[in-house]
Predict the structure of Cell division ATP-binding protein FtsE.
Amino acid sequence: MIRFDNVTKTYMRGQHPAVENLDIEFSRGEFVFLVGASGSGKSTMMRMVLKEVAPTRGTVYVAGRDLSRIPSWRVPALRRDIGMVFQDFRLLPSKTAYQNIEFALAVIGTPRKVVRRLVPEMLEMVGLEDKGKRLPHELSGGEQQRVAIARAYVNRPTILLADEPTGNLDPSTAEGILELLSEINERGTTVVMATHDQSAVDRMRRRVVEMVGGKVVRDEQDGRYETEGALSVISGNLPDDSAHREEHPLDDVESRDGSGAGQDVSAREDEPASDVLEEELIDEREARLAQEEDAFSEDEDEEGLR
């Protein structure tokens, strides 16, 4: 479903990679937790899946497609099959809960009849069937996140990416969000969630991938948040700022075990993705119209030849 084939991403020439020599695959229907200190490469991975950024070296595959071969005008169609949930919700503040979900359908030309059926279904699924007319500021943090999940899932994507979706929520509210994501996963959607929520990871016991300095240092099924592994940052075996040090974060460990094979790397993924939801959706509509115009022009050319 998602595969990174020897992927390295460097944001600026001469600086250390955000991810380096990444080889990992997430299968269809999996629920995967990405864990690691801030700046370890988790968000960069998600941005590459969304084709927001391109790898400096290597290949990213999504649903069997090489993203480097997808032209820019087809990127909106790719993203239609990938839902994205953020820590800060990113709802359109001037639109109601209903309209936020509706907007994601309207810009891709979904018929009104289908919109009127799907949006109430989504509100009911996330437990907000009676709050569709409320603006984001009239909802609690947990309710706003539920709207964001409904918006991300309304097109029934095969992949759902969640970047710290419980980071701003209290524990009981976060538990409800995790149950909702688990329900979506049970419906067949692949869920990849970056998180620092130890209780969620320990409770759900799904696949856990830990990253340090842009490299995968742990990949285990039925995993817990912490591990006894020598390369783990979150377990205290490396200092929390190791991903931001000038030297490679694994150098000290490698020198202790005698391998001495460390190479310079550092994460530059601390630059947050731009909040461009509305613009991206509008771009999708424009790309769809451009595609239709190209098809119409081709039909006219064929008619002229005849």
Remarks:
- The CA atoms of residues 104 and 110 lie 9 Å apart.
- The beta strands are 2-9, 19-26, 31-35, 57-62, 65-66, 82-86, 159-163, 190-194, 207-212, 215-220.
